[in-house]
Amino acid sequence: MVIAEFEYDSGTVDKGYNNRTLCINLTEKRIISRPVTEEMKDIFIGGRGFDLWLLWNALPEDRTIKWDDPENEICIACGPMGGIPIYPGSGKSIVVTISPLTASVMDSNVGGYFGPYLKFSGWDALEIQGKAESDVVIFIDGDKGKVLIESAEGIPSESHLLSEALTKKYGGEKKSSISVVSSGPGAEHTLFGCLNFSWYDLRRKFVRYKQAGRGGTGTVFRDKKIRAIVVKYSGSISPETNHPADLELVKQAGREFSKEIVTFDPKQNEMAVIGSSYLVSIMNDFDLLPVNNFRFGSHPEGDRLSGGDVYREKFDHGYDGCEIGCAMACSHCVKDFELKTGPYKGQKVWVDGPEYETIAGLGSNCGIFDPDHVIEANFYCDTYGLDTISVGTATAFAMECYEMRLIDRKVTGGLELDFGNKESALEIIHQMARGEGFGRIVGQGIREMKKLFAEKYGADPKKLQDIGMEAKGLEYSEYVTKESLAQQGGYGLALKGPQHDEAWLIFLDMVHNLMPTFEQKAEALHWFPMFRTWFGLVGLCKLPWNDVTPPGNEKTPEPAKFISHVENYARCFNLILMSEKVYNFQRIFNLRMGFGTREHDDAPYRSIGPVTREEYESRVDRYDKQLREKVGYDPQGKSTEEKMDVLRRYRESEYAKLKAAVYKRRGWNPDGVPTQQKVERLGIDFPEVIDLIKNASASREIRADL
Length: 706
What we know:
This protein has about 700 residues and is an alpha+beta fold. It folds into three domains: about 1-235, Aldehyde ferredoxin oxidoreductase, N-terminal domain (Aldehyde Ferredoxin Oxidoreductase,  A, domain 1), CATH 3.60.9; about 270-475, Orthogonal Bundle (Aldehyde Ferredoxin Oxidoreductase Protein, subunit A, domain 2), CATH 1.10.569; about 485-540 and about 575-705, Aldehyde Ferredoxin Oxidoreductase Protein, subunit A, domain 3, CATH 1.10.599.10. Helices cover about 40% and strands about 15% of the residues. Strand 11 and strand 12 (about 205-210) form a beta hairpin. The mean pLDDT is about 90.
């Protein structure tokens, strides 16, 4: 049944833009086209920038909304460089919404065909408002120039079935023309639902998908009663389709970059063979792989999860790009995996992934070193619409609470949650999908679990805070940061919460010691978030930039920046200034939501130092040496508890100093708020922005007086 319909002229892309966005109001059953102004392109560029601007203007000015209010939006955009098949990694979409986990603005990026198909169907961004009365499918037909809101009656709920059904229904004989955005039943019962973005694998003849995983985008999606968004585009896609300002430059840059990837990836990380799973053994070797809720950074069984030794055989062989023509080809899958649990027990399925974060989160961080468990948990998280990072980190937290006797079997509903318990870990995932049992509690995220365990079950709030690996309400992604002050800042200072896509500095800081001073760390925590933000503005994937090392890179003054790759990107766009505008605007957006100041950049102590005696003693030589050399404290004859207390005071003071240094470098005041001079220089000095800055400064002065 068609609920609403809208016809439009598909038009043509000019210099990467359609110059219009699609707005759908589900409450009012209204579909309209909105213009993209030159100012919007100059300041917000595309992708994440467009999403933020659309959401900013849609929210009511007189009150702060909650994630499940009808006024919250889901915004999805590509970017001006998205959909250039000759340029590596040009298939990114970026999703922005108010997060159920953080109560503030969330961005999450994802690969696949949806973003380019949306653009070539005529739209620079999609903005969805309101709530439907019953489940709906939104169909954007770029071939016919038509947008439909249709009843979702009779279609499956789980993503692996739903994506197949809708690809067949809307794609007809050309299934490759379809991309589906969906979630699943797990998103309806948790706060960290993810979105699956599909594409049709022509060689394997089945639908695959990537995830916009972070922050509960899928939870908002299902709360709006959207079962799926489908976009159809059957036209040809080439560098010419995007109509860039300088076609020959883009072709040349893309060919050079692709050739470099094809030449060097087989000799370096083998992303085209084993994807990001190659990181597992490296992280384990360097004490950076999360084990048992980030207590430890390595494990003797870590190699059982290793990409090179395990996934070379597990992954189905063949080209695996999640975007047309991408030379990285790093999106792999497992063929005919027989499920051992859940509603599809005994069935053989295709499983997309797992990627490094999923392996570490669902595997080692829960004390589980069985790759088949990780693959099964990966499948169910995807089809249920659950973020594997939050599921893994939240489950690991619950396991440690259980082992520390902060909760017991009465609380867990009879589940034994010792680290390494595969059966209980999978049962939690199935309970999340059913919306029942202890799985529903874990599905509310670590911040809510800390409140519940303290208030209802009498657990020590300080212990919960120390081991609860969340910041701003978002669960940590899967790297141990205790020995890297820069990466502690990379997580704690990230705008949306602790996700490594702003600043992955752990190797440069801990292993290579390339930034020993606060000023150097602050500079890195300025430059890397700015540059990494840029990818989400233009519609590109970051992996080609830093997962393939160009020849001679080690001889450059700053090898961590992969300058020859930066120069390749810079041939197409001016980078850092573009990102600064959007990055600072998003910080101010956090202010608007009641966050975005210094206290919200705090981090749980486990990300800064050892919480338990066992943690300290596992690295006793390292920590004792630091006490002598950095603190000037003699650990000889002191108890572990005494040493931990001294180390904690030192490390917490170092983190506080780092925050101050980063704020100064970014042009923010000591409370972490961009200054008026900063926003004026960036051209984002809108009246409401200036008001927010002034109000934040006034509040800081009042707190200081008190």
